[in-house]
Write a structure and sequence with these properties.
heterodimer, A: alpha+beta, D-amino Acid Aminotransferase, Chain A, domain 1, Dna Ligase, domain 1, seven-stranded antiparallel beta sheet, four-stranded antiparallel beta sheet, 14 strands, globular, B: alpha+beta, RimK-rel_E_lig_ATP-grasp (chain A), ATP-grasp (chain A), manganese (chain A), Alpha-L-glutamate ligase (chain A), ATP binding (chain A)
Amino acid sequence: MWTTPGKLRAKGIIGMNRRNIRYIGRYNDRHLYPLVDDKLKTKLLAHEYGITTPALIGTVATQFGVKHITDMIAGLSGFVIKPAKGSGGKGILVIERVEDNVYIKPSGARLERVDLERHVSNILSGLYSLGGTPDVAVVEALINFDETFAEYTYEGVPDIRVIVFKGYPVMAMMRLSTAASDGKANLHQGAVGVGVDIASGTALRGVQFDRPRTDHPDTRHELASLRIPGWETLLTLAASCYEMTGLGYLGTDMVLDREHGPMLLELNARPGLAIQMANGEGLRPRLDLIERQAEGADVAARVAFAQQHFARSGELQPTPLPQSERLAADVQDT
Amino acid sequence: MSRLPFYLLTGILLVAGIALSIHRHIQFEVPWTPGEQRQVWEIEAQVNFSAQGDPVLVDMALPSHQQGYRILTENTASSGYGLSFLEDQRGRRAQWSTREAAGAQQLYYSAQLLVVPDGRPREIQPPPLPDNIHWESPFASAANQVIEHAHQRSADPFTFTRELVRDFTGDRQGENARLLLTQFDRTPLLVRLLNEAGVHAREVSGLLLEDGRRRQNLTSWLQVFGEDGKWVLFNPRTGEQGRPDNLLLWEDRGQAVLEVQGGINSNISFSMIQHNQPAAAAVRNQLADNTLLNFSIHSLPLEEQALFQTILLIPIGALVVVFLRVLVGIKTSGTFMPVLIALAFIQTTLLTGLVGFLLVVAVGLVIRSYLSHLNLLLVARVSAVIITVIGIISVFSVLSYRFGLNAGLTITFFPMIILSWTIERMSILWEEEGPKEVLIQGGGSLLTAVLAYLAMNNPWVRHITFNFLGVQMILMSLILLLGNYTGYRLLELRRFKPVTED
């Protein structure tokens, strides 16, 4: 049931205390936090830096404006309402379809107009925001997620978390929502985390509730063949968030849109440590290596460096065909 | 980035905290444990005299801190008299004065004295020798012979004194001694002879402490100074050397104990009683010297002291929280909410506190789940929860009182705003993360609160935090050190275990 600190250290696992003091405390300036804690700010900033994000439909900032939410979303087939300062996926409402003024969630739950208004009102009064401060509701276009992942997810949109340290993408994982996680992509709620090879964008290892998994618990689809298209674009997007925010230790959450390719969903100045579980490897050796690199490398050089040094081969048993594909991809990448 | 200033700061805090605590322990005899009993003497001096209808001035010597005894408190009772305490080269004195008094007068002075086992004798300046001691003709030669006799059989002032007193005592009492005693009182005579022989000495007055004695008088003692400034007491009646353990020096400057102007037939008598009291109480009664090092909560009025007793415990609770979060990794709802709950537990006792807390939160959660259907603004909803909590507490108090459970009344000690926020947070947690997370965080909060309560309610911890302010510095440095810990948390050893299993 318990392991020893020595074993964890040998694996290079970093704990909460070390993350907080050594990385977040040292590399993330407090005054930069609002850039990532406020999703609206992140969105506007990303627009400035040419980083694609889901289209902004509108914002609601006053209780008075709550009544106009239906005007704002009139004619849309699907949309997402989220609190600008929410954390941990709290308060995000996804509406997949609209039928005769009934709003249908991915789970099939049907909401009325008043339910929508109450949700927005709750967001404004700070129910989901850090410290309960008054907040702004952001309405975004629904992401048309890439059909290649349909088999790997249940209800929600799978997203890709990349840890970016001093501008280098150091570790990545894909988060697949499950029935247990209620369509949310948070690992502690029961989503499946799949470690992703930085070099090739292929699956390394899967975990749910911190225990290894080789298939998706709901769709029963095996995880080994998972491969993220447009991987290098995605890494470049993630790495350029360093210039955009100035935060040295950053969690970037990306999604793949059918038409627009990789998109930045949100940023996190205090990314969790579960990514180590999904990769079966600690962050420490990679962070130590990056700390020894000289400053000033550009985005392309940083991505290339990461792909060269952090290449891993998966421990999942893949089917023969995807393996040959992946080998080919590896040869191309290096 | 150098961590040197950090370690320097924590080091200084730690050393200063320990040094302050040890200083308080040694200098003010504050014990390390609360259970220790200390002996305390209550002594009452009664001054009697007859006034003549004229202005009256009564001047009385007072005892001061000395080897073996420390004065805790002193009080006087003297209606119609003005009173002032003086401290000059004549030592500590009390002066009563009135414009007009007639008939029998009684003045009271009482003091509480703490028995201090290991006090050191105080350094005193020896009194100067009188310039010229004049003897009448028959006594001069007698005195010379006595001095000569004692001098031959002695080596230093102390042995000389012993021999001298012996010559005036019992079988060895010679003709010369008897002659001198017809003219002089014993103790002044001995001082006179000692001074004649060039020995610094004076008469001091002391009180022999015996439990439950009344109408006691002061006895006179010889204070003899050696060549190096050390002094020794001699019993002028037996020649015994050294201070008896139960001797309290009332007047130690060679002055009159009592001087009355405007009155006759004055006398002073003493009654005394001894009792044991807990060391903490004895410490509380200590007179506060206004020095910086004696910076102490005890100099505040009693009401503020009681307040501080609680406030000074909060760092202990904070340390428990820091320990459990940083080293163990327990999740709590609201960082320091458990400390506030623990403070409430101190008032309610643990079991009633736990039951009351769970009842209020459980009922509050049920009502809160209804409130969430009403679609209210956050502030209004939390306010509604606050009123609900007050309602729940009132109902429980009345019910428990009706059923004869007086313990239930202490439920009112819970901080209601904190309870309301706890209910609000738990409710949101329930909706978003499910009941499991509520159990984890609620259980973590309660566990932390119980541990903080056990630490804060420990009599030894209460004694130490209240009596040693230096402990706050030690706690500060410990918390700073914990804030610097980058190692694994205990629960992470379990969380990350699957990674190490490959």
